[in-house]
Amino acid sequence: MVQESNIGKNAADAMEEAIAWHTVCIISEDGKSIGTGSLIRWRGRKLILTARHVVQDSTNEGLRFHFRPEGTMKRAPLGEVHGHPELRYRQKVKIEIVARHAASSVDLAALELADVLPSRQPARFFDLDVDATAPGAGTVLAFRGYPSDMADEVHPGALASFAVMDWGQIERPHDLDRFDPAAEFLVKFSQAEGGIHARGFSGTGSWYHCHVSEIWHPNLRLAGVCTHYYAPSKLLNFLRVENVTAFLRGTFAE
Questions:
Q1: Of 28, 46, 144, 190, whose CB neighbour count within 10 A is largest?
Q2: 168 touches 188 (CB < 8 A)
Q3: Number of domain units in the chain
Q4: Which structural domain, as residue segments, surrounds residue 176?
Q5: pLDDT tens across 127-143, in order?
Q6: pTM for the whole thing?
Q7: What is the dihedral of CA 26, 29, 34, 39, to 10 degrees?
């Protein structure tokens, strides 16, 4: 596996824990549509970054959210998740959204939040650098999403969401419809080999580790935001972080 051969299991687990703190499940008002967002702090503002299409058909009042469980993450093979002995369902959370900002030229949106999240939510906001850049081909990335295929109907009309981690490398550019290599990059969705569709990963952030000292810690950097899935090729399309920061700079003038 990519993570085993590149940074080792313990380092991979530490990165997955860190990414989970910055990741949130987004559920539409009808309870049947699931997407993913990243908790970002931009020039003092608290935001949930996601793909525009994840939220465009729902009102702010109609959105609900799931955060990571408290404590150390419990891991299980995909086929054993629903019956895991330590499974505990968490209630959906309503968050005060003070403004919604959507890009016009790319599939990107930012939900601006009130200063304080509902109490005791295991969540942290990632400080996004205004000069952030996406790494090059071959860089190992990790991303956490909430695929619809893993959702469990706990009672009629109510779905429980389950997070899935995936790892992959930035691919060299492919000749694909709608793909713009200057603005986007591609990563193989390895969970597709287990029969999971990437629907629900829309809006998730992709993350990589940046070495800054001799003492290793999960020093995360955001590489991009997922906007599309090429199912026949099993490739996730990510909008490069440079385009994300350009959108934020244009939206929130100094």
A1: 144
A2: yes
A3: 1
A4: 2-251
A5: 999 999 999 999 999 99
A6: 0.86
A7: -10
